[in-house]
Amino acid sequence: MELKRCSKCGEEKATAEFYHERRRVGALQAWCKECFRDRRLADPDRYRGYSTGSLARLKNKIMDRIGGMVCACCGSVHGLCIDHTFGNGAEERARFVDDNGHYRMSRHRRWMLNDITAHPEHAVHYRVLCTHCNASAGKSGSPGNPGKCKIDHTTNAQDVASYQHFQYIAADTFDYVTHNPEGVPVCLMQS
Fold first, then answer.
1. Which of 11, 88, 109, 140 could form a disulfide with 147 if both were Cys (CB 3.0 to 4.6 A apart)?
2. Do 44 and 155 contact (CB within 8 A), yes or no?
3. What are residue 187's DSSP bridge partners?
4. Closest by Cα among 80, 79, 100 to 190
5. By C-alpha distance, which of 135, 127, 182, 129 is closest to 163?
6. Tens digits of per-residue pLDDT, 86-137?
């Protein structure tokens, strides 16, 4: 059994008591797991933005400010994502890549939320779309002209499954159809 000394507490412990170093293959963190836990407990605000739950809460807050928890195109409430209306999502995400090439989603979402809160007029740069409509719109947007969804949401439910966009999903896996206010089926949805 290999041993390593923790640089925080000074104790010599088994290597299994150390987290792996993400940035260096095969390397271990300098502090043991127990010292990391103590640090997180001592300063929870510092580590608040790192859990998936926090990311989901940030995403929900952003969606509330830019249009609510419903697809702006088809009205779906499932599989929602934040779309960059002018097709500049890749450029914006590139600003939140660290020196090691890792995209920092929590930093990006906090920046989006702060930007939209401080400048409500910037909310037009984003919209809430379901994953199907977002994939269909693609990167077709430009300043002043958001990308358009290419799915005909007024087509009856049997035809929707035949679209190229939905070919990878078998029609019998759909559970229900959403309807617009006039009662016309707009999109097949999975539960």
1. 140
2. no
3. 178
4. 79
5. 135
6. 778 888 899 999 888 888 888 999 999 999 999 999 888 898 988 888 887 7
At 23 the three-state DSSP class reads: coil
pTM of the predicted model as reported, rounded to 2 decimal places: 0.53
Token pair, residue 102, equals 């890792």
Between CA 70 and CA 64 the distance in angstroms is 9
Each domain of the chain, given as residue ranges in start order, spans 3-42, 51-148, 152-191
Specify the residue for token string 């925080």.
8
Burial 93-123 (b: 16+ CB within 10 A, else e): eeebeeeeeeeeebebbbebbeebeeeeeeb
Burial class, 57, CB count within 10 angstroms (exposed 0-12 / middle 13-18 / buried 19+): middle
DSSP code string of 113-172? HHHHHH-GGGGGGEEEEEHHHHHHHTT--BTTBPPPP---TTS-HHHHTTSGGGTTS-GG
